[in-house]
Amino acid sequence: MTDTPQLKLFNxxxxxxxxxxxxxxxxxxxxxxGPTVYNYPHIGNMRAYVFADVLGRTLRFRGYDLTHIINxxxxxxxxxxxxxxxxxLEKMAAQQKQSIWDIAAHYTEAFKADVKALNIREPAQWSxxxxxxxxxIDFAKAIEGKHxxxxxxxxYFDVSTVEDYGRLARAQTEEGESRIGDVEGxxxxxxxxxxxxxxxxxxxxxxxxxxWGRGAPGWHLECSVMGGKLLGFPFDIHTGGIDxxxxxxxxxxxxxxxxxxxxxxxxxxxxxARIWMHNNFLVERSGKMSxxxxxxxxxxxxxxxxxxxxxxxxxxxxxxxxxxxEFSWEGLGAALTRLKRMVMSVQPLxxxxxxxxxxxxxxxxxxxxxxxxxxxxxxLNTPVALTALEDIxxxxxxxxxxxxxxxxxxxxxxGLDLLELSREDLRIRPKxxxxxEAEIEDALARRKAARADRDFATSDVIRDELTAKGVxxxxxxxxxxxxxx
Length: 485
Ligand code: AMP
Ligand code: ZN
Prior knowledge:
A hairpin with a 2-residue loop joins strand 12 and strand 13 (about 285-290). The protein folds into three domains: about 10-145 and about 160-175 and about 220-280, Rossmann fold (3-Layer(aba) Sandwich), CATH 3.40.50; about 290-415, Isoleucyl-tRNA Synthetase, Domain 1, CATH 1.10.730; about 435-485, no CATH class. The chain is globular and about 90 Å long. The chain is built from 14 helices and 16 strands. It is an alpha/beta fold. The protein starts with 7 loop residues before the first strand and ends with a strand. It has a five-stranded parallel β-sheet, sandwiched between helices. Residues about 175-180 have low confidence and may be disordered. Adenosine monophosphate binds near residues 33, 36, 45 and 281.
């Protein structure tokens, strides 16, 4: 393709759009902060991984050899992102009277199931924090002399020892902080534990010997260590949700600067990565999404209510990743309908394209392909990219094989599974339905026969019976759905 636009990404560190230039020729190395596996992820958490997935797919589409790491945080994340509170996993294990390892295993599997359902590619590696304890201790030993001090409760990082601390958050280290009160003896409000020593007389289910006593690593240390170890400092892109921009990532950056012996952050790579990217939140009308209040919006809840999980992926793609997105069931329904319309345009192409996917692109498709590439290269503008794909599907008098080739290529970026999904997959199927699909089809066939015989009384009875079981008969529906549960 001529004049392929440059790939521009928004760097939270510089608050600017920047052209992606790989650190290693032809490669893209990406680290995504993974879930803390103390509970099921909510769909807001999954937005962060849909975003990271679109980023990874875009990098591959743009020809880079991608190495993508997502970690699993199974230790060290406190109930408060700074140093207050308890370890989230220890707390859940105590509440449920279960082994912490079982808790971690269970919720890791649940997370991976959501990843699969949302068509998020598996990363090159799931790195599990507790597999890297030795490396974390080595990292801490390497920086402690110049950058850390020990208190009874653990080893602390002194943020005044690195240049430009908090630039990512645009935070003033000493002002407006409520963090100083949390641990006695801290030198600066923003100092944080990189190793938390188990208090005398207590035991934790997860703890290890270290030069600073028996204890557990801090959450920020984990990501610095796994990112550096698996991708090498500096790597290309680090991602996470926008909350990580305030505490977790500034602390990772400070540790990385310390470890690499780097100076200030005017040189972005001193942070350990060249580009830091953050997705905005999925919110509920009532405010922040939470696992404890109101209806716990897990992907499984959406599935139980009958929605195909990719309708949620579509909902995410309809918004730019840096915009807040409000969840509503109406919005999810609209996303499902949009996905259905696309699938209904693609399905006949699959049957019609006798020669299969075409090798070349003609003059009608070409400009729309370019529009798609421009959109996705403009800081992953998926809302515009979606419309370009829809415009391709709506083209008249274009060979099916050619359209199919375009869909295959572009869906490689969007991940909506357009070549596999069928209309039937997208029917709303609530888990608690009182009637099976075969029974519905059977009733509708009887109704059709009755109407053909002009027996409208029987036809009405059948319709009423279906209504009583929650089935709406949709005569003349423009999308061709004959019924809805
Ligand atoms: P956690 O398991 O709490 O560490 O969060 C996993 C990921 O989800 C992190 O990247 C968070 O920043 C992100 N996240 C948390 N809440 C939301 C939300 N409501 N919308 C989008 N991303 C979120
Ligand atoms: Zn992290």
